[in-house]
Amino acid sequence: MTTTLPKRDPAGERGGTALHTGTSDLRTLLTRNLRQSGISIAFVAIVALFAVLTGGVSLSPGNITNIVLQYSYILVLAIGMVIVIVGGHIDLSVGSVVALTGAIAAVLVIGDGLPWWVGVAAAVGTGLLVGAWHGFWVAYVGIPAFIVTLAGMLLFRGMTLQVLGNISLSPFPSEYQQLAGGFLNGLIGGQGYDAFTMLIAAVGVAGYAVLAHRARVARVLDLQQVESFPLFACRIALVGLVVLAFAWQLATSRGLPVVLIVLSVLVIAYGLVTRRTVFGRHVYALGGNAAAARLSGVRTRRVTFWIFVNMGFLAGVAGVIYSARSNGAQPAAGTMFELDAIAAAFIGGAAVTGGVGTVVGALVGGLIMAVMSNGMQLMGVDQSVQSVVKGLVLLLAVAFDVWNKRRVRGDG
């Protein structure tokens, strides 16, 4: 008997299981991944809420630029933390590692007068060594990551005090400060705005649209369900408008922050690593079911080791950014950063049991924390109330994850 396969149509509008579902198409798009659609809607709602509560000040060009500068290091940490959590682990030491790497950079650059790039290299190298230290104990000795990194939090905070001699060091040379506070502007002109910032944003939107279309075509050819082309086009247009509006605010303020370029490169790179590489697939397999991954040939110890090395690397990068932003190194630097990074990952859709989470989701989760903190500061909300609100948001995010799992399993 001859079976006629459905016709493959790259446009996704004719034939095959890749057809859109008519009136239920929007519902399918929103519920196919409830974590990510929910967090995106929540982010838009929170931005709109604080825009109203602050009389539009939260969306002013200067304030948006300040959000990028003030919370960039948390977003860098969130990228590494979500990979750790997806792999089924946790890292409580990143705040102390940020302090230690910044302290080492300060001693070399401020104390010894070495070039700024030596301090950057030393900070990142220290982060890699810390990550290897954690990875060894977790992967090859078998001590739970919670215990290893809790010990690391104490160990590296003490080392920071020793390196700095329990005093602060400042200031860094201007070249080092530019890593966190510098801007690229005026390269191609613009009347009242920075045209270079808008050009970069336009190129980014075009690249996103091309990659999204290619991914959609690939799903259609694999006979997977996709949204209708008009809805797909609306989604791309909406993302493009948001990015261009964000870029316009930056362009009318001080231009394109250098740290935003660093963050964008990291997001793109780690997005590709987690979705397109063998290592990324192994991380998800490890977090989803470590025993099954091991039986499938995944070298779980090696994957775990490199997960922590990567976290150390990003903690070193965050240490450079934070020390450059604060223009010095302090013994108490990085306090509670690990909780902010963990909260960003969980709010962004990472599962408490591992195996689920995305870099983009962690970025959105970090931005939610940043917008809430910034908005409450603009409103003059007391610090204690801010902590209560952040705690409740984190609790609700994890509760949503638990509820969503029960819904999928049908447990009620």
Task: Report what the structure shows.
The longest helix is centred in the middle third of the chain and has 27 residues, at 195-221. Helix 8 packs antiparallel against helix 9 (229-251). The protein has two domains: 73-182 and 258-368, no CATH class; 186-253. The protein contains 16 helices and two strands. The chain has helices at residues 25-31, 34-53, 61-86, 94-111, 116-141, 145-164, 174-181, 195-221, 229-251, 258-276, 278-288, 290-295, 300-326, 337-347, 359-378, 383-409; strands at residues 183-184, 256-257. Part of the binding-protein-dependent transport system for D-xylose. Probably responsible for the translocation of the substrate across the membrane. InterPro entries: ABC_transp_permease.
Secondary-structure topology with pairs:
Blueprint: H1 25-31, H2 34-53, H3 61-86, H4 94-111, H5 116-141, H6 145-164, H7 174-181, E1 183-184, H8 195-221, H9 229-251, E2 256-257, H10 258-276, H11 278-288, H12 290-295, H13 300-326, H14 337-347, H15 359-378, H16 383-409
Antiparallel strand pairs: 1-2
Give a quick set of tags describing it:
2 domains; globular; 16 helices; mainly alpha; two-stranded antiparallel sheet; single chain; ABC_transp_permease; 412 residues
- Number of DSSP helical runs: 16
Percentage of helical residues?
A: over 70%
Structural class: mainly alpha
| Cross-sheet strand order for the largest sheet | 1-2
The tally of domains stands at 2
SSE string, helices as H and strands as E: HHHHHHHEHHEHHHHHHH
Q: How can the largest sheet be summarized?
A: 2 strands, antiparallel
Strand content: under 5%
Strand runs, count: 2
- The end-to-end distance, rounded to whole angstroms, is 44 Å
- Arithmetic mean of pLDDT: 85
> Any idea what the radius of gyration is?
23 Å
Low-confidence stretches: 1-24
Taken from the alpha-carbon principal axes, the silhouette is: globular
